[in-house]
Amino acid sequence: MTKPWRYGVTQPPVGSDWYLSLAGQSKLKRATSRRRRRIGWVIALAALTAGLSLVAISGATSSPSSVIGVYPGSADPAGITPVNTLLGYKVQYAMGFVSPQSWATISDPSQLLSSWEGSGYDMTFSVPLLPTGTTSDEGAPVKGTSLAIGATGIYDAYFEALAHNLVAAGYGSSIIRLGWEFNNSAMAWFA
């Protein structure tokens, strides 16, 4: 006459004194206690997340000293203007992507660098680990190139040339995202 209930506890028939049974009480108490602990953890995590979000939001919009970066398109400093207008101050960082088309475009991204010249932004440049033969960072690397071959140091000269070109163009203190998203299997330098 009993019906299965949650947590392996059997629901008592109507009018019974089943709740007075010690075995029934301990099962019910354990199930209720576990549920209350889970609900407590969910509430605590939600409160922590909401609190951190409020701190981040209030800190990001309250003063021009907040550090914000924008990717408006690989070579489009003017694309940041609407964000500056919205915030009421100029953001500090901008990001550009070095073309993975060939070793020449990786080691000498002069077109990209000249597009950001005089913009006043602190730059972050995403630099591919291998050329892809196209302007896309997804797909296979150029035939004959691989991360294993690069680990031998054979490609070092390309990255040294890139470093010299960045310094010569005034970007010696920029942030470099070398081989970004290498954990994405679609990337040519997936590892």
List keywords for this structure.
two-stranded antiparallel sheet, flat, single chain, 6 strands, alpha/beta, 40% helix, 191 residues, 4-stranded parallel beta sheet
Topology:
Blueprint: E1 3-4, E2 10-11, H1 22-62, E3 69-70, H2 81-87, E4 93-97, H3 103-107, H4 110-116, E5 122-127, H5 147-150, H6 156-168, E6 175-178
Parallel strand pairs: 3-4, 4-5, 5-6
Antiparallel strand pairs: 1-2
Give a written overview of the molecule.
- With 191 residues, the protein is of the alpha/beta class.
- The protein is built from 6 helices and 6 strands; from the N terminus they run E-E-H-E-H-E-H-H-E-H-H-E.
- It has a 4-stranded parallel beta sheet with strand order 3-4-5-6, with no helix packed on it. A two-stranded antiparallel ribbon has the order 1-2.
- Mean pLDDT is 79; it is low at 16-23 and 52-62.
Provide the gyration radius in Å. Answer: 29 Å
Q: Reading side by side through the largest sheet, how are the strands ordered?
A: 3-4-5-6
What gap, in angstroms, lies between the N and C termini? 60 Å
- Low-confidence blocks of residues: 16-23, 52-62
Order of helices and strands: EEHEHEHHEHHE
**What fraction strand?**
5-15%
Count of individual helical segments: 6
- Report the helical percentage: 40-55%
Average residue-wise pLDDT: 79
Structural class: alpha/beta
Overall, the morphology is flat
